[in-house]
Amino acid sequence: MKLWARMLWALLSGPGGRRGGIPCLAFSSWQSHPPLAGLLSPIGLVSHWTRVFEKRGIPEARESSEYIVAHVLGAKTFQNLKPVLWTQPLTPQQLQCIQVLCSRRLQRVPVQYILGEWDFRGLSLKMVPPVFIPRPETEELVEWVLEEVAQRPNVVEAQGGPLILEVGCGSGAISLSLLSQLPQSQVIAVDKEEAAINLTYENAQRLRLQNRIQIIPFDVTSVGSWTHLLPWSPMDLIVSNPPYVFHHDMEQLAPEIRSYEDPVALDGGEEGMDIITRILTLAPQFLKDSGSIFLEVEPRHPELVSNWLQSHPDLCLNLVAIRRDFCGRPRFLHVQRSGP
């Protein structure tokens, strides 16, 4: 993902295109922004909607307008359009479609939901509200897991690749990205929300990876609920981007997040640690000796997690590495099982 696309999400997040476009329907709310008269070029539409978005305080106004215009024209990004098309007039239908989608952006609907899909490490994933939208930082989590697997060739199952558990699969971004890069791997993906389970399955089918992933409804907070995962243990890796926002920070999140994404996928409790500690508590039951847990967390969490692990020596888990994200914030943890 390009840097400016990463910065778009960094700004939208506050503390913390489908190729070929989508059918456009008539909306009665157009009166506030009536359809533009005449035929305009893509570059003219981008300039127009950038000004409208800026006036209304929409974050990353130009990037939002570029994504939408490109999407209607069948491209992933504006830069993917042939330059000769930048100044060609659009049809009335295309203008109307852009009008509809930009009107949704004015309502602070995330670009990912407007387009209906988003790229994650080169994979085109379907996006539907309220399933959590994968952030650019999470691409770095996947990169780290892939690096560690490459450096530890012994981390394999009998079938020749690691067996991976993802807790909280959402759209399936992490699981499917790992499957696409580790051809012999198998993934168990779990989530408590039916919408996330369904979306992960649909994305797996779109990418033809459904034969190597088990997608299971599962609530990590439910006592005893992990027992039905035991047939797949021991596992090589557990990976998760769990809910980690401090509860008192939820109200500070951008409107795009507060109004449209599932708060259950964001709110980690008083110190953002509720699901993190639950994963760590249960992980030793399913990990191999020297198996690893990779977590995306809030920058205040490395110290909190380290202290928590020291107070729970019976788990035989050690925080072995911390990695910073592209903004320099301590964002990722590698925890390793150190005993039977």
From TrEMBL:
Q: Which GO terms describe its molecular function?
A: nucleic acid binding; peptide chain release factor N(5)-glutamine methyltransferase activity
Q: Where is the Release factor glutamine methyltransferase N-terminal domain?
A: 46-116
EC numbers for this chain: 2.1.1.297
Q: Which UniProt keywords apply?
A: Methyltransferase, S-adenosyl-L-methionine, Signal, Transferase
Domain spans labelled Methyltransferase small? 164-249
Q: Does the keyword Methyltransferase apply?
A: yes
Q: Which SUPFAM superfamilies match?
A: S-adenosyl-L-methionine-dependent methyltransferases
**CDD domains in UniProt:** AdoMet_MTases (cd02440)
Q: Supply the InterPro entries for this chain.
A: DNA_methylase_N6_adenine_CS, HemK-like, N5-glutamine_MTase, PrmC_N, RF_methyltr_PrmC, SAM-dependent_MTases_sf, Small_mtfrase_dom
Q: What class of enzyme is it?
A: transferase
Catalytic activity field: L-glutaminyl-[peptide chain release factor] + S-adenosyl-L-methionine = N(5)-methyl-L-glutaminyl-[peptide chain release factor] + S-adenosyl-L-homocysteine + H(+)
What does UniProt give as GO cellular component? Answer: mitochondrion
Asked if the record carries the keyword Mitochondrion, the reply is no
**Where is the signal peptide, in residue numbers?**
1-20
Put simply, this protein is called: peptide chain release factor N(5)-glutamine methyltransferase
What is the native source organism of this protein?
A: Ictidomys tridecemlineatus (Thirteen-lined ground squirrel)
